[in-house]
TrEMBL record:
Keywords: Coiled coil, Membrane, Transmembrane, Transmembrane helix. It comes from the Bacteria. The keyword Membrane applies. This is DUF4407 domain-containing protein. Residues 149-241 form a coiled coil. It comes from Flavobacterium restrictum. The chain crosses the membrane at residues 28-51, 57-74, 95-113.
Amino acid sequence: MLKSFFILCSGADKNLLENCSEGEQTKFVGIGATVFFTAVMAFIASGYALFTVFDDPIPAVLFGLVWSLLIFNLDRFIVSTIRKRDSFWSELGQAMPRIILAIIIAIVISKPLEIKIFQKEINTVLLKEKNAMALNNKKEVTTYFKGDLDKNKTEIASLKAEIVKKEKEVNTYYQTYIAEAEGTAGTKRLGKGPVFKEKIAKHDLAKKELDTLQKNNLAKIADKEKNAKTLQTDLDKKITQTQPIIDGFDGLMARINALNKLPWLPSFFIMLLFLAIETSPIIAKLLAPKGEYDYKLEDLETALKATIEQDKYQRTLLVKTSATMHDKVYSDIAEDKKLYDLQRKNATDLLALQSNTFVEKQKATH
């Protein structure tokens, strides 16, 4: 049963191959097995590639099945249509389109498995890139909010500076009227004279202004600090919201780019391995010697071709002979006097009938 299945995979004529030797059948079993296992490898590679994209086994398996059937059908068709000839280069010319396609397919399907093989190294590269992206994201978000934060900070500092300035002014008035009362400055008269009263009045006025300024500015500072906390919360929230996007930077394209940052030689050899697998059905057919099956198939094809060409030639002669005979028959009829007179009479009667009909129509219109 397995032998019949692999012969089916090879695309060979089963009835014709049954009459061949056991060795010839074994050769086509090997070719069919190569076609089958190439399709299996295509299923594994394409299925894993789609799994890395959708992270869902169902579409990955379905696409892998369709892709493997496509490769299987293509390889089976190409292998079955390559005819063994006396020239190897002629056979190679037949297989060249499939070889070019195999190179493209090998590059495409080798990447997912390379990603799986070098998964740990790729994860290290992606971790570094994610960390760098997180730092850059934090800098960008901080820069976005920096203007408002700096403006808010400057306004708070300005309000505090006004309070400090007024406090210094009040302290200066306080030192002035105390020195006046002690007689150490100003008029240098001990006691609370008119100058003392004037200076303490200035101090009291400045103290009231300080109290009012502190009340107003502290309220403004509280609002500004509340706004600063809101801005900082928004900044942290923005960073938190964008972090999952960075954490999700783990798709197929990201891994391919990370793979390209690793040394190229291991990936190159894996790609060569898949290229060998993809081209193995064609190579197996090209390297297989011309055997009993090929000779029998060539005999059937040449016999059929000869029969078709002979039939075509005979049909051509038949048409040509029939045309010559008909030309001669109608030439003899044209020289018959009785047929000529009969045809003339019929034509005369037809013209007379047409003329009478025309006259009747003309009368009917008047």
